[in-house]
Design brief:
Number of strands: 5
Number of domains: 1
CATH class: Alpha Beta
CATH topology: Double Stranded RNA Binding Domain
Strand content: 25-35%
InterPro entries: DUF1488 (IPR009962), Shew3726-like_sf (IPR036692)
Pfam families: DUF1488
Organism: Paraburkholderia phenoliruptrix
Protein name: DUF1488 domain-containing protein
């Protein structure tokens, strides 16, 4: 499966407490997201504030995108939501 992450800024979604970012899997656009809890627990986000979550995402973008790649390879071109528990098992 060919997976590509466009060089776009991630988006904070306050309603869902996630940081979302786009991907393409075999040419199909896919929405990926990581929870605020995962960013705090595993990637050093200092708080739930948008600035802290986005900074943690940017500092760890490569690792987060690799985790999304692993999931996309397992499930195919479907939306991905990564919770803190996922990183407990993939680290």
């Amino acid at each position: 499966m060919k997976i590509y992450f466009p060089n776009e800024s991630p988006e904070y979604c306050a309603r869902d407490l996630v940081v979302a970012f786009p991907a393409e899997a075999d040419g199909v656009p896919v929405q990926c997201a990581i929870t605020a809890e995962a960013l705090e627990d595993h990637f050093g986000a200092a708080s739930l504030r948008e600035e802290d979550l986005l900074a943690a995402f940017e500092s760890n973008r490569r690792h987060i995108q690799q985790a999304a790649t692993n999931l996309l390879e397992e499930i195919g071109p479907k939306p991905v939501l990564m919770h803190s528990g996922y990183f407990r098992f993939c680290d």
